[in-house]
Amino acid sequence: MGEAFQLTSDTQLWSDFLSGSEKAYKIIYDTHVQSMFKFGSHFTKNDEIIHDCIHDVFIDLHKYRTNLQTTNNIKKYLFISLKRKLFKILNEEGRYVHFDAETPAFFYSLSVSSETDDDLKSRQFELLEKAMLELSNRQREAIYLRFISGLSYDELSEVLHMNYQSARNLIFRGIEKLRESCQRKSSILFFSFVKYH
Predict the structure, then answer these.
(1) In whole angstroms, what is the distance from residue 136 CA to residue 106 CA?
(2) Would you say residue 134 has pLDDT above 90?
(3) Is it true that domain 119-185 has CATH number 1.10.10.10?
């Protein structure tokens, strides 16, 4: 039920924005700018480039709104737009020595809450973070989008430009590799937060 509400909410908000509502435009910005920055920070640590690209995304949205298509997931739309702009700049500036638009470097870091003083939990996050480094860039990005950003497999496949089944397979192989890696490093199993079917 929550997902249906979110889809309806995004559809209506986007429709209002396309109709010229400045309030809707501001809500879209305020709601998604932080998650866009976090997503962008996985491709580059240059905050200035990320901010510039986010700025350009929203300038383009406002400028070309009369030509934009409808969407039922604003986050997915913004992630795709930001990723495209980031790759263009990073490629032009030679930020990647071996740049590949399909599988760029995807930095991943888990943050443990400072309020957490549970040594076991901290150790689990440390193991998971090390295990993430063993995944391919594509697998890290897919897992981030699916489990941190909450995109569905349909949405994930659009952001990654692959078909639905390939997206599911990518996640499945990534989770299996994480499980194997963590089991090698520790007998503690802590994947209860990752649910996939």
Answers:
(1) 9
(2) no
(3) yes
